[in-house]
Design goal:
With 112 residues, this protein is mostly helical. Helices cover 57% and strands 4% of the residues. It is elongated and about 60 Å long. The two termini are 33 Å apart. 4% of the residues are buried. Catalyzes the reduction of the C14-unsaturated bond of lanosterol, as part of the metabolic pathway leading to cholesterol biosynthesis.
């Protein structure tokens, strides 16, 4: 039953966004997702930038999880994630490289 609740919440978001997009002005609709076919429009995305107030839902739901995965993938230095492994000390070039790799994630998440 708990699994049904998770899938229900997951399915509620796109249904809510599509239903909400039916009441927005024509200028707020995406050109590709405004075909007139409701099934096609639902899957392509009807509204261009769905917002609740100043909170951008598309930015939060698409960009944020991807960047979190990207950063967490680069934080673990390979074999140091294995149980009982000893990690060598990270040098300055590797630390600088990690900082540069994480910079886009930090910059794009700054406004959230």
């Amino acid at each position: 039953m708990e699994e049904v609740g998770r899938w229900g919440r997951l399915a509620a978001s796109p249904v809510f966004l599509y239903g909400r997009s039916l009441g927005v002005p024509e200028s707020a609709l995406a050109p590709g997702g405004n075909s007139g076919n409701p099934i096609y429009d639902f899957f392509i995305g009807h509204e261009l930038n769905p917002r609740i107030g100043s909170f951008d839902l598309k930015y939060f739901c698409e960009l944020r999880p991807g960047l979190i995965g990207w950063v967490s993938e680069r934080v673990n230095p390979g074999e140091c994630g294995q149980a009982g492994a000893t990690c060598p000390k990270t040098g300055t070039p590797a630390t600088f490289s990690r900082f540069i790799n994480h910079l886009p994630a930090v910059i794009s998440s700054w406004s959230l």
